[in-house]
Backbone:
């Protein structure tokens, strides 16, 4: 395995991915950097289904390019589940209120929906399913989570997406206030990537 292609164009994600998978010894490319111009309709009903659909779809496109015949294709589907809102926005997190709507607007809308709700009922989690499509046609998927509550205001500059409203009581701050190294240690994506790294290293014990 000398190349890993991650099915995303999100550079914030790629920074996290490269930090966590840095010691694998493989070149890690985003789909955009690999020049794979393909889109996949994520019509699954779970994070795992969508991650697998994306990984397999991008793998199909990649295999038509000689330089990526032996590459491992990774894809994730991640989002925020708020228990009080019936686990919304869930798998629709990126599309909540429209894909082009800024996260400042999305975050404020969620805070407004939770106005007056006490902390004990504001429980939430970030979920990240990561799928791998291997050159032999097989695939695997893992899940990582990070538990917390929805805060009462938008706070923090270090994260992206819903990080500024995701409060971690044990650390007294939002996910967007964590240092990058600490966030990678605690985050749903970090947990999922570490599980996937063990699979890529050929050791799936404990998955």
Residues:
């Amino acid at each position: 395995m000398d190349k890993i292609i991650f099915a995303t164009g999100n550079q914030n994600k790629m920074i996290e991915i490269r930090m966590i998978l840095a010691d694998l010894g493989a070149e890690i490319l985003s789909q955009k950097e690999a020049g794979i111009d393909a889109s996949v309709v994520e019509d699954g009903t779970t994070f795992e289904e969508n991650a697998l659909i994306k990984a397999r779809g991008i793998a199909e496109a990649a295999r038509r390019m000689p330089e990526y015949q032996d590459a491992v294709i990774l894809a994730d589907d991640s989002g925020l589940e708020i228990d009080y809102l019936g686990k919304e926005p869930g798998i629709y997190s990126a599309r909540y209120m429209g894909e082009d709507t800024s996260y400042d607007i999305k975050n404020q809308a969620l805070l407004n929906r939770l106005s007056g709700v006490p902390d004990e009922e504001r429980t939430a989690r970030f979920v990240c399913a990561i799928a791998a499509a291997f050159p032999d046609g097989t695939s695997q998927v893992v899940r990582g989570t990070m538990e917390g509550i929805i805060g009462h205001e938008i706070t923090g500059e270090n994260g992206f997406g819903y990080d500024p409203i995701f409060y971690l009581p044990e650390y007294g701050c939002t996910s967007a206030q964590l240092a990058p190294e600490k966030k990678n240690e605690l985050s749903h994506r970090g947990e999922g990537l570490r599980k996937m790294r063990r699979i890529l290293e050929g050791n799936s014990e404990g998955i």
